[in-house]
Amino acid sequence: MFPTIKGDLGNTRGIRVGVPSWVDWWGEAPEEYSSLVERCVHAFENHLDRLGLEWVKVKMDLAERLVWRLFPYIRLAEAASTHLDKRESWGECFPDVRRLLEKGLSVSATEYINALATRREVYTELKRTLKGVDVLATPTTCITAPRISEVLGREDGAVRAVLTHNTVYASYIGLPAISVPGLTVDGLPLGVQLMGDRNTDRHLIELVKTLE
């Protein structure tokens, strides 16, 4: 039997939203983005209030400790493996893409296997968390989009890690996630990301229809 969201999907009342503790990471974010990350999180929380959603912060210690350390091993190794038969053409890629592919070649088998195996522990923590809430919600991106001139030549640097930070979790343990427009900061979009348990895709879509 597939898991379901328990609240009334035709009404936001009764839908319990969990905001994971790992969104409050501005103290660990690169210094040039730290204050913007914090401001965007507060804007996100105010947005949830305006939507009339019942939400709480949920502590996810295991995810905080492991996900962002281990996910790069999977992402980099699998990207390099997927494109390995075209390695002679890597020089034609944009420099940031080529650098990421080359990093994937340095991931060891033990690093990759450990990163895969640890997903089970992280997913178990999610199951415990979802006993108290129906969905997880975060800003889709931690910051608003930077100007091209601010990141040109260093697209695979700090800005990539910051922009993708909140979408890593669902990718790591294989959760359905959807980004809902409507949240902006300084006139630029952030979006609200909703994540549910595995096999709750349809329920997430129904919830989004309610929010729209």
From TrEMBL:
InterPro entries: Amidase, Amidase_dom, AS_sf. SUPFAM superfamilies: Amidase signature (AS) enzymes. It holds the Pfam family Amidase. Residues 12-204 form the Amidase domain. Gene3D superfamilies: Amidase signature (AS) domain (3.90.1300.10). It comes from the Archaea. GO terms for molecular function: catalytic activity. This is Amidase domain-containing protein. It comes from Candidatus Marsarchaeota G2 archaeon BE_D.
